[in-house]
Design brief:
Elements: E1 3-7, E2 10-12, E3 18-25, E4 32-39, E5 46-52, E6 58-60, E7 68-73, E8 78-83, E9 92-100, E10 115-116, E11 120-124
Parallel strand pairs: 2-11
Antiparallel strand pairs: 1-3, 3-8, 4-5, 4-9, 5-6, 7-8, 9-10, 9-11
């Protein structure tokens, strides 16, 4: 059974950068869509970005376009989220998630994803 472990979170000043990693153990990510989501205190979980692992096709939530980049490393069964120009409103627990899918494009919806990691905290503050 595939398991996901996120890392790379931390405290960063506004304007700074972090790179989150999502390492999958078990099956390879071939045939999966991988998504990054976040949840701030008192708010619902929201989608950030997703990637079709087979093709590298990506999708981004509007508020992170141009600042965040999702990428994959097939050799290491890992998906990254590079976050630049971070803002205080990016503060949240960030989760990665996967779903088996051969659709051409991934969907920015938590309901579409079936397996989740435990999350990593990102805090953007001066």
């Amino acid at each position: 059974q595939l398991q996901l472990v996120e890392s790379g979170g931390g405290l960063v000043q506004p304007g700074g950068s972090l790179r989150l990693s999502c390492v999958a153990s078990g099956p390879t990510l071939t045939g999966y869509h991988v998504g990054w989501f976040r949840q701030a205190p008192g708010k619902e979980r929201e989608a950030v970005s997703c990637i079709v692992h087979n093709t590298g096709r990506t999708n981004y939530e509007d508020s992170v376009k141009g600042r965040f980049t999702i990428s994959r490393d097939s050799a290491n069964n890992t998906v990254y989220l590079q976050m630049n120009s971070l803002k205080p409103e990016d503060t949240a627990v960030y989760y990665c998630a996967v779903v088996v899918s051969y659709r051409w494009s991934c969907v920015l919806s938590a309901a579409d994803f079936t397996s989740w990691g435990q999350g990593t905290q990102v805090t953007v503050s001066s």
